[in-house]
Design a protein that fits this description.
The chain is mainly α. The chain folds into two domains: 1-70; 74-123, no CATH class. The protein is 57% helix and 0% strand. It is built from three helices and no strands.
Length: 123
């Protein structure tokens, strides 16, 4: 027993109950604000769940599409633009010695040459 004649555990329970009552009165007194807060929480949680679901579905779709290509597909490119949207003219082209080295490695069954050109379109 404490000096006030109440056990400390019982006093702690009374404080918690008083806080719950006070919170209940505040919620009841501001019904519209409480409803809008609850609506915002529900919409936020639903949005997070939707984004996670969409992200997981997209990931699986990409994995499926890549697996259709085959696990032994290798794409070799000579370079990439220095910045997004920049023309690819700064990249060093593959030379004959590069292709010869790839073929002589005996890791390739087939090779398909491809050439791409990127240009900026002016309005």
């Amino acid at each position: 027993m404490s000096e006030f004649g109440v056990r400390p555990a019982a006093r702690g329970l009374r404080v918690v109950l008083e806080n719950v009552r006070l919170a209940g009165r505040a919620v009841a007194g501001n019904r519209l604000r409480s409803f809008l807060t609850l609506l915002g929480i529900v919409i936020g949680v639903a949005a997070v769940i939707a984004m996670i679901t969409i992200g997981s579905g997209t990931t699986e779709k990409v994995k499926t599409d890549i697996s259709k290509l085959g696990s032994n597909l290798l794409v070799v490119r000579s370079g990439r633009p220095a910045q997004p949207g920049a023309p690819n003219s700064t990249a060093r082209a593959l030379e004959d010695k590069d292709v010869t080295a790839l073929v002589q490695s005996q890791l390739l069954k087939f090779s398909i040459p491809q050439q791409e050109h990127f240009r900026m379109v002016q309005p």
